[in-house]
Amino acid sequence: MPNFSEAATLENGTDITIGKYDTLNSAAEYDLATALNYGQANGSPQMNRFVAEHTEIAHNPPYADWRSCLTVGSTGALEQALRMLCDKARCDAILTEEYSFSTAVETAMPLDVRVFGIEMDGEGLLPNKMDELLSTWDEPARGARKPHVLYTVPSGQNPTGATQGEQRRRDIYAVASKHDIYILEDEPYYFLQMPQYIPGQSGVVDKTQSVDDFLSSLIPSLLSLDTDGRVMRLDSFSKVVVPGSRLGWVTASAQMIERYTRHAEVANQGPSGFSQVVLHKLLDTTWGHEGYFRWLMHLRGEYTSRRNALLDACAEFLPKEVASWQAPRAGMFHWIKVDHAKHSGFVSGARSILDIEDEIFAKCIDKGVLVGRGSWFRAEHDKPPRDMFFRTTFAAATPENMREAIRRLGAAIREVYGMA
Amino acid sequence: MPNFSEAATLENGTDITIGKYDTLNSAAEYDLATALNYGQANGSPQMNRFVAEHTEIAHNPPYADWRSCLTVGSTGALEQALRMLCDKARCDAILTEEYSFSTAVETAMPLDVRVFGIEMDGEGLLPNKMDELLSTWDEPARGARKPHVLYTVPSGQNPTGATQGEQRRRDIYAVASKHDIYILEDEPYYFLQMPQYIPGQSGVVDKTQSVDDFLSSLIPSLLSLDTDGRVMRLDSFSKVVVPGSRLGWVTASAQMIERYTRHAEVANQGPSGFSQVVLHKLLDTTWGHEGYFRWLMHLRGEYTSRRNALLDACAEFLPKEVASWQAPRAGMFHWIKVDHAKHSGFVSGARSILDIEDEIFAKCIDKGVLVGRGSWFRAEHDKPPRDMFFRTTFAAATPENMREAIRRLGAAIREVYGMA
Predict the structure, then answer these.
(1) Rounded (10°) CA dihedral B123, B129, B131, B133
(2) What's the half-sphere exposure (Cβ side, CA atoms, 13 Å) at B399?
(3) Is B211 a domain residue?
(4) A98 and A154 part of one domain
(5) Residues B257 and B130 in one domain
(6) Is B294 domain-assigned?
């Protein structure tokens, strides 16, 4: 839960109450007596209605029989989807970004589903590289069947912060259609799409934007482009309302959602009734769709300020001779490339990329700063990296602490590179 | 959630509050800021401490390195356990009672884990039958490896209401040791063990019993007999506090719990923080262990009154020429045998057990009463039943409604058997 949510709550200040028999009294459509009893494995009709309406407003999927249903969170949803779509007995594999969300890779591994990474640029995975990989798939050499599933985080990807632009999404979708690939679109950061970064203008956020303008400003989701019914979108409240609810939702064709629900009945029986009734009261009864979108706009503004503060610090403290980056357009992660080829130990052949990465990481720890090592996030753990990266985040720390952390990261890099 | 919980709440009448930063202020050991953030997949330390203490008081497992951890409820826990213990590639199978909890059987099926039923009597599964089945296991004929897992509900079993006595439990454990069987002990009804049924003495419950006497009166759990470390116990709040929490716990050896936790990290990431903090505030901060045991004693009393009312109605209305039953000693289910061999259609060979069961079931529906057909609960769906049963429940209906329902069931049986 973002620390700054408190401020917004205090501004409003209203108490929200939930009665035991509100429904019986017609005071509400959902109450504790319903929420805290046994329910359906796909969640309550009340909360399902809310997420379906929200999905229609935000994505309007271009086919008639799409459905949403609640999940126990996106990790659980991803595992259920992988168990539905992949089978170790058939040597199934999935595609993902070359640097990928580590929990997703770790979820596939115990299912014996192999993961293959696709090369990326600043806009995420490269469609032509995906096409090439699939067109030249060599099953015996790869030790896996040609993949039929893509797992992707299109906006503010963890760990790279990359956001696929609209054309990039259309191109990825076209490659998926060509090779009959089913897409798992994991979008926890979708609504944290930010305006362009302008150095030194930290904290400038347009508070006059309308909800319609906000929604039009968002890059279309893969779900909204899905004319084939080949996308399952995973949505989450973890990054924008509350991680501890263990409640999210998926959207896909009615056929997929029916299978997903049957699976949930014998895997987890759906999300907590406490979580459902609290979120329903907040999102549906209290805020409504407009209010929830306004909350997301508010959050997006807060994250923009934090991102800008982090980027200002990077410009001030990181050695540009070896460090380079792009301003993230969404999410909460910032990905910094450090040029290993400029390290004398690498040039002499004495040190590998992983050696140098390890030294910078350890030096940061010595200075009291934790950065994510790029190699932690490689989709193919056994493949040596071609470049060196570090992941930083603007999720939670104060601007002052971020500035100090980046100053120390800069000092660590300089020391390891023997710079003044 | 039992309907009568309301009364107990009103009696007490205290408001319970949870602050956002109680922990920071040292006002509490657990607060919303902690519970609603990301947590461990095995649940919060606070709630884990409570269930571990509760388990020690109630079961005191006889080895040192046992552990408990939270689950997303017992169905999810069972699925995780089956995925850890069984592999379809090895043709694994499990044993259970001949009539078993249908959700458990349905959880095993999509995992391609075969389920074999063990013959039962009024005290549940028969150890000598289990020994015989395992001693004479014929892998090719059975189409499955000799089972190494037993799934059992020792107290108030669903659907039969059978409760294993202490000697029965010791005998089952001995057979499990002999054949190296791992036991999944599913005990949602453990604390609903009731005093003996005395006809006409409905509603008489001893309210002066001490917590110690209550605990001593309970039949020892398989966990409490587990000198080998071969038991995983599944506990649930669904039948005694709130089904909608989707929160339970498992207890087993440290080795099993460590594997279970790793599994939860990529399957569901553990139970809802809302559920954890609400239950912690109620069970730990407000009630404490003694208060929780007193609540369970209160519930046990309520269920005893309901059971007695149902049994009184059975004695009054069911035709004893064909219907027979034992008074359940625990839980919320009552299992009624109806003698198919006394039906003229069966005697003439014109009707099967399933035909007659179907006719009684349909006749009850016509009369506005739903009873569970015994055949629904058969562990081996494809094996024709040897006897005919109906499951009734005293979980939720009022004594008046139960009486009327049993009157109609009696009438339905009489009509189908052509009795006056």
Answers:
(1) -140
(2) 13
(3) yes
(4) yes
(5) yes
(6) no
Specify the length of chain B in residues: 420
Nearest to A244 among B39, B72, B263 (CB): B39
In angstroms, the Cα distances linking B405 to A98, A198, B296, B321, B371 are 63, 74, 27, 19, 9
Q: Which two tokens stand for residue B223?
A: 């966990």
* Domain co-membership, A265 together with A369: no
The beta-carbon neighbor of A1 closest among B36, B247, B265 is: B36
Residue B4 lies in a domain: no
Mean pLDDT estimate for chain B: 94
* All residues at 6 or more sequence positions from B400 whose CB lies less than 8 Å from its CB, including other chains: none
CB contact under 8 A, B103 and A75: no
User: What DSSP letter does each residue of A187-242 carry, written as one string?
Assistant: -TTTT-B-PPP-TT-TT---S---HHHHHHHSPPPTGGG-SSS-EEEEEESTTTT-
Which residue of chain B has the CA closest to A275? B274
Q: Are B161 and B271 members of one domain?
A: yes
Tell me, yes or no, whether A405 and A287 share the same domain: no
Whether A240 shows a pLDDT value over 60: the answer reads yes
Residue A10 has pLDDT above 80, yes or no: no
- State the average pLDDT over residues A79-104: 95
Q: Which residues of B touch A6 (CB under 8 A)?
A: 20
Say how many CB pairs under 8 Å bridge A and B: 124
Which of residues 199 through 228 in chain A touch B, CB cutoff 8 A?
A: none
Owning domain of residue B46: 17-288
Count of helices and strands (H, E) across chain A: 15, 13
Q: What band does A27 get if pLDDT is binned at 50, 70 and 90? A: confident
**Together in a domain, B172 and B271:** yes
CATH number at residue B349: 3.90.1150.10
Domain end, chosen from A241, A273, A299, is at: A299
Model ipTM? 0.93
Query: Sorting pLDDT into bands at 50, 70 and 90, what band is A12?
Result: low
- Amino acid, res. A5: S
Give the contacts of A147 (CB within 8 A, at least 6 positions apart). Answer: A92, A93, A94, A95, A116, A134, A137, A181
B126 close to B97: Cβ distance less than 8 angstroms: no
Q: How far is CA A343 from the centre of its chain?
A: 33
**How are strands ordered across the β-sheet holding A333-338?**
A323-324, A333-338, A389-393, A372-373
Report the number of distinct structural domains present in chain B: 2
Q: Is B6 on the interface with A (CB under 8 A)?
A: yes
Which helix (H) or strand (E) covers residue B152, if one does? Answer: strand B149-152
Measure CA A125 to chain center.
14
- Is the pLDDT at B15 greater than 90? The verdict is no
Nearest to A256 by CA among A184, A152, A187: A184
> Looking at the structure, do residues A178 and A207 belong to the same domain, yes or no?
yes
CB A99 within 8 A of CB A374: yes
The answer to whether the predicted template modeling score (pTM) of the entire model surpasses 0.90 is: yes
pLDDT tens per residue, range A31-79: 999 999 999 999 999 999 999 999 999 999 999 999 999 999 999 999 9
- Whichever domain contains A49, its CATH number is 3.40.640.10
Q: Is the pLDDT of residue B347 over 70?
A: yes
Partners of A72 on chain B (C-beta within 8 Å) are: 72, 246, 268-269
Backbone φ, ψ for residue B248 (5° rounding): -145, -160
Domain-embedded: residue B155: yes
- Does residue B110 sit in the same domain as residue B156? yes
| Residue at a domain's end among B255, B288, B321 | B288
